[in-house]
Amino acid sequence: MTETPIHPWNTPQSTSSSASTGLTPEALEAWVNARLDLHHQALNRVLAETDSRTPGNTLRPYDDAIFELAASSSLIGLLNSVHPDKAVRDAAQAQAQKISQVVVELALNRPVYDALSAIDAAAADPATRHYLDRTLLQYRLAGVDKDEPTRARLKELQDKATLLALTFSRNVQEGGNTVTIDNPSELDGLPPDFLNAHQPAPDGKITLTTDFPDYLPVMTFARSHNLRRRMFLAYNTRAFPQNKQVLVDLLAIRKEIANLLGFSNWANLATADQMMESAANMQAFLDELDSASRDGAEKEYARLLSFSGQSQIDACSRGFWLEQFRRSAFDFDSQSVRPYFPYDRVQQGVLATAARLFQVEFHPAPDASTWHPDVAAFDVFDHGTHSGRFYLDMHPREGKDKWFSAHPLIPGIADHPSGTRIPEAALICNFPGGKPGDPGLMQHSDVVTFFHEFGHLMHALLGGRQRWAGISGIATEGDFVEVPSQMLEEFFRDPALLATFAHHYETGEPIPAELVHKMNRAAAFGRADGVRTQLYYTTCSLKTHTEDPAALDLDQLFHSLYTRFLPYQWIEGNRMYAAFTHLVGYSSNYYTYMYDKVIALDFFAQFSRSNLLDDPIAMKYRRTVLEPGGSLPGKDIVYHFLGRSQSTNAFANWMNEQFQPPSTI
């Protein structure tokens, strides 16, 4: 019997080249069926065991089942987001729904739960005990201990929720809008490389997309208010109106699930196994940030108003006026750093920084098969040992997910009886470049995003060496997930580090330290405003999952919360909720970005500013934060690195840095 390949794009029906043109919907379905068959075989071994239950004879086959489910779910989710063939993407969505149904069935499988509950883990290592305890908690939160009619209803609701979530995300993925320009003068203020990449068509018109390489420069640099407004509305009406009802239906299902499980709302259910623990604790945290950021944000907005000479600034002009103010107040034009950030140099720099910081090596894997010819594969070596692989799919294309994300693909297992399994992960991004003759000049925020996502990648790979697949890689509580990514962002501000790779794409000159200092001072302005923006998103996320969906007016809710947290004039027609995919993924728990920012800044404060990359603390960070993966509770990881619980001091200093003398920045 032929062994089923671990990657769906390597199925026997597919071509063996690096392109994935040979992958068919039929081959994809056969691959999923084969992986799910291995999953069910492993569960059968769990239930067939007749001896006293131990981690070896019960948790091991259960974990084998989890491995198959996790790998198949992640790989199919990837193809649903990025495969160039719509027929394959459609098939991947159908298969993702099938896999999700199996996940729900497992979560409500009482015999498997009883088998795991019977394991005597008293003599087991702490990671095994943590894995078992967390697994049993998640079973109970899924409703496994409810009566049969309740479990049947929960399964029905979860299956419906899965379909709605997939539909919501696909509508955003394939629902990009365009903006047509009749007069090239509307592009005044945009950088030359942007203008070169957007030449008029034969009819004289220029078409812009809502993909980030078009959207972000327009909202930052375009002098035309009319163009910014049109782009803003095009971007914030993606997947509208179709996703409005999809979202309402999803919220109603989540509420019913929470009520069946004994929770007053979804947010309380979603935080029950998190570091935050409850919706009430979440609200208290948000209230604290609200109070801490209000004064600074008011000062920032007052300075913008005074500078602009306007009585009010609207939502589509926020980025433009922030840019103009920074140019004036800090002598910093964000276009001035773009020539130092051509995409290829940035990629080299990110890889070199991570390799040096965490003492690993990355080698191109040109023979690795991928889902698209533009995807680059790299192997990870740790002191000569092949310990992981990652894929970079970094530029926009038709039908591809338009956001920026890290995708764990295959959980690593360090000491499986059948041999070591190395972890794999991918970055899915939409940066400039990727076309002949286009250097892909990036804004400094793009570079921060690259560092952010690579932080996730290192967590997945360095934490992917556990005994158990279920705690391998990014398997921590959901509200610890953003810590490693946001911690790595902070390295981007170091002039010496940037000079190692940020070289002018034409002259080769390293980025001047003084320019970096100006950039850092300018970037500090607007941080309180940025926290308020995150509070807006976070509170929208919370309120949509605590209010009654039957009476919920999404337009009114998002409008009222916007005016509560932000001073900019609301633009009628803004339907951002229709493309706010975090409502599907993070559900009520978008707070994790700000919660983890507090932890990340506390972590970064432990590094020496004069020796960032060679500070011994980097290896302590790797050993105590990244390598444990999900083998410890998040609060224990924090304590092991800091020797205490997290403090808000570093966050407060970061948010108020703009009000400090320039010499301290």
Task: Walk me through what this model shows.
There is one protein chain. The chain has 25 helices and 7 strands. The chain is mainly alpha-helical. Strands 3-4-5-7-6 form a 5-stranded mixed beta sheet. A two-stranded antiparallel sheet has the order 1-2. Residues 14-20 have low confidence and may be disordered.
- Fraction of residues in H or I helices: 40-55%
Major sheet: 5 strands, mixed
Approximately what portion of the residues adopt beta-strand conformation? 5-15%
The tally of strands reads: 7
Give the CATH topology of the domain at 338-528 and 591-664. Neurolysin, domain 3
Number of alpha- plus pi-helical segments: 25
Shape: globular
End-to-end distance: 64 Å
Radius of gyration: 25 Å
Average residue-wise pLDDT: 95
**Which structural class do the helices and strands define?**
mainly alpha
User: Biggest sheet, strands in spatial order?
Assistant: 3-4-5-7-6
CATH architecture of the domain at 338-528 and 591-664: Orthogonal Bundle
CATH class of the domain at 338-528 and 591-664: Mainly Alpha
Low-pLDDT stretches: 14-20
